[in-house]
């Protein structure tokens, strides 16, 4: 396969408000290959909304338009709900920020994974059960037999997040959209979860969209980074070049972080400028360097 | 300013009793900024809540300004000395009370006079103009809400501020503003801080010394310089520092 997994051009998400139309996403364009693509920005920059729009999860009165939204060359923009359901979960999955709110509290972990898997892949209960056990092992959960019989409140946050990832990966999706998957986790657990996702991209050739507000983490984990401000991509660059970012917004974000290795007396504060909203974005290229894999 | 000695905090009853803090001891000098770091569940916030009188199942000794406190009872003088700022500015402000009402209440409870002028001054102290006085929390951003929460804590003119993850719900750009504000206020009002955070870089920036906690115990107390050098005495501390410097591909 040569084309990108996902191709997005001029994606817009609009909400009508009493003050007129509010555009949460204003013309986002990018390609995703079999790579780790980071999407960074502050709250309200439209990064989560971009992920939701791709999956068709923007509820009315929100309105999604795009010049192109293609999955493997097939348009998936505003598909009828029936068809979208065949894509959602099976070909594109999403891991949300907080496992506490994403798992069903009155169903055992095992039943939830089995249900999700059978819905997408069909097959018998026993096969699904075996698959669930395999997936839990793949995300490095010790003693998966026991975890299968527990309820979400009985597992820790890190474990819940790994269970979510296991559930999302059971149908072998081509693309995983991870919306702040590690923000609720401690640093030691965070690195474990990242290792798991990293292995999945490498071993299965999955495309990963990693939405985060943590610039340094994204720089270290991802291959490419999109920086979003006020619903637009202001800069696209290779992750290793993040510290040579040229856009003042990116630089401002990086500088405002306290660092262990570089003590300062005062943290520089981001001075917002109006032209960031509508100025020309700095992009090397929209297309991915990794259409065929890393 | 603050002495904590052999502090134990537990929740529930045997056989379900959970010991959240075990034999924690530390002392904070006047004007110092002291950090508590550790992973979630390590008991760092619980220590602050025990000091503030929000938990009564504790034993040991807590002394504020040389005076020991007991159980959950705190006298008015205590609250004029110690105030607390909470993690989530979206949850810690009453949604139907305006900024004016919030500060008014805090000032009235402290028996302050000249409330009108004090509210104006408090808002200026935390970098909010007069225009914010009659707004409601839903009309404020996360950073502005946290400023209001800080103004409310300052209303009592305390000398010790307990800060429970004051910036972890905020964007990094807003975090920088709030951390700068806290540093300015400390210099201006000669405050003592006890700050809880899971972010080592934030603690190293704000604090002179810090305690590293794991499973309810204080593993070690170290200086911010030692933290920056990665010079922990315990394996756990060194691992924590290594993990926080970022993700490295294995």
From TrEMBL, chain A:
SMART domains tied to this protein: AAA
Nuclease as UniProt keyword: no
Taxonomy, superkingdom: Bacteria
The keyword Membrane belongs to this UniProt entry's keyword annotation: yes
ABC transporter domain segment(s): 6-255
Subcellular location: Cell inner membrane
Major subcellular location class: membrane
Keywords: ATP-binding, Cell membrane, Membrane, Nucleotide-binding, Transport
GO molecular function, one term: ATP binding
Region (Disordered): 275-294
Membrane-topology annotation of the record: Peripheral membrane protein
PROSITE patterns: ABC_TRANSPORTER_2
CDD domains noted in UniProt: ABC_NikE_OppD_transporters
Family recorded in the similarity comment: Belongs to the ABC transporter superfamily.
Protein name per UniProt: ABC transporter ATP-binding protein
Species, as recorded: Paracoccus marinaquae
UniProtKB/TrEMBL annotation, chain B:
Residue stretches making up the ABC transporter domain: 4-240
Domain of life from the UniProt record: Bacteria
GO molecular-function terms, A-Z: ATP binding
EC nos: 7.4.2.10
Primary localization: membrane
Membrane topology: Peripheral membrane protein
Keywords of the record: ATP-binding, Cell inner membrane, Cell membrane, Membrane, Nucleotide-binding, Translocase, Transport
Substrates-to-products reaction catalysed: glutathione(out) + ATP + H2O = glutathione(in) + ADP + phosphate + H(+)
Localization per Swiss-Prot or TrEMBL: Cell inner membrane; Membrane
PANTHER family for the chain: GLUTATHIONE IMPORT ATP-BINDING PROTEIN GSIA, TRANSPORT ATP-BINDING PROTEIN
Family statement drawn from the similarity comment of this UniProt entry: Belongs to the ABC transporter superfamily. Glutathione importer (TC 3.A.1.5.11) family.
Assembly and oligomerization: The complex is composed of two ATP-binding proteins (GsiA), two transmembrane proteins (GsiC and GsiD) and a solute-binding protein (GsiB).
Function: Part of the ABC transporter complex GsiABCD involved in glutathione import. Responsible for energy coupling to the transport system.
Name of the molecule in the record: Glutathione import ATP-binding protein GsiA
Taxonomic source organism: Paracoccus marinaquae
């Amino acid at each position: 396969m040569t084309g990108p997994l996902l191709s997005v051009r001029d994606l817009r998400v609009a909400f009508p408000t009493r003050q007129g139309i509010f555009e949460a996403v204003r013309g986002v364009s990018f390609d995703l290959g079999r790579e780790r693509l980071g999407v960074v920005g502050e709250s309200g920059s439209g990064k989560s909304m971009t992920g939701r729009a791709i999956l068709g999860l923007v509820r009315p009165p929100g309105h999604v338009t795009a010049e192109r939204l293609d999955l493997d060359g097939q348009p998936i923009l505003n598909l009828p709900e029936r068809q979208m359901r065949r894509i959602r979960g099976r070909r594109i999955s999403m891991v949300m920020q907080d496992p506490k709110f994403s798992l069903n509290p009155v169903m055992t972990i095992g039943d939830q994974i089995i249900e999700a898997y059978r819905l997408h892949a069909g097959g018998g209960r026993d096969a699904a059960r075996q698959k669930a056990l395999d997936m839990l092992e793949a995300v490095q959960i010790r003693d998966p037999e026991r975890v299968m019989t527990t309820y979400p409140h009985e597992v820790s946050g890190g474990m819940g997040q790994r269970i979510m990832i296991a559930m999302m990966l059971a149908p072998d999706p081509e693309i995983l959209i991870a919306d702040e998957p590690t923000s609720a986790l401690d640093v030691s657990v965070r690195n474990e979860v990242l290792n798991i996702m990293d292995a999945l991209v490498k071993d299965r050739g999955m495309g990963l969209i990693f939405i985060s507000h943590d610039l340094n983490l994204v720089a270290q984990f991802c291959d490419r980074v999109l920086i979003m401000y006020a619903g637009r991509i202001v800069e696209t660059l290779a992750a290793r070049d993040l510290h040579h970012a040229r856009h003042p917004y990116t630089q401002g974000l990086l500088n405002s972080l306290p660092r262990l290795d570089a003590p300062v007396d005062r943290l520089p504060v981001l001075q917002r400028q109006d032209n960031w909203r509508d100025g020309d974005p700095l992009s090397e290229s929209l297309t991915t360097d990794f259409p065929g894999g890393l | 300013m603050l002495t904590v000695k052999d502090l134990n905090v537990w929740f529930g009853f045997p056989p379900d009793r959970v010991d959240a803090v075990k034999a924690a001891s530390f002392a904070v000098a006047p004007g110092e900024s002291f950090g508590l770091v550790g992973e979630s569940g390590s008991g760092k916030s619980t220590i602050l809540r025990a000091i503030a009188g929000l938990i009564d199942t504790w034993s040991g000794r807590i002394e504020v300004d040389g005076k020991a406190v007991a159980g959950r009872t705190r006298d008015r003088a205590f609250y004029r000395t110690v105030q607390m700022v909470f993690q989530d500015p979206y949850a810690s402000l009453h949604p139907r009370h305006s900024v004016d009402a919030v500060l008014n209440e805090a000032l009235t409870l402290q028996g302050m006079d000249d409330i009108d002028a004090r509210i104006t001054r408090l808002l200026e102290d935390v970098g909010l103009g007069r225009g914010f006085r009659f707004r409601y929390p839903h009309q404020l951003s996360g950073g502005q809400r946290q400023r209001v929460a800080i103004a409310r804590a300052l209303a009592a003119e305390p000398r010790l501020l307990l800060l429970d993850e004051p910036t972890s719900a905020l964007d990094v750009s807003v975090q920088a503003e709030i951390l700068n504000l806290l540093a300015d206020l400390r210099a201006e009002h000669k405050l003592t801080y006890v700050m809880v955070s899971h972010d080592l870089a934030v603690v190293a920036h704000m604090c002179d010394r810090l305690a590293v906690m794991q499973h309810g115990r204080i593993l070690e107390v170290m200086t911010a310089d030692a933290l920056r050098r990665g010079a922990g005495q315990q394996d756990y501390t060194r691992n924590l520092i290594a993990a926080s410097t970022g993700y490295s591909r294995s």
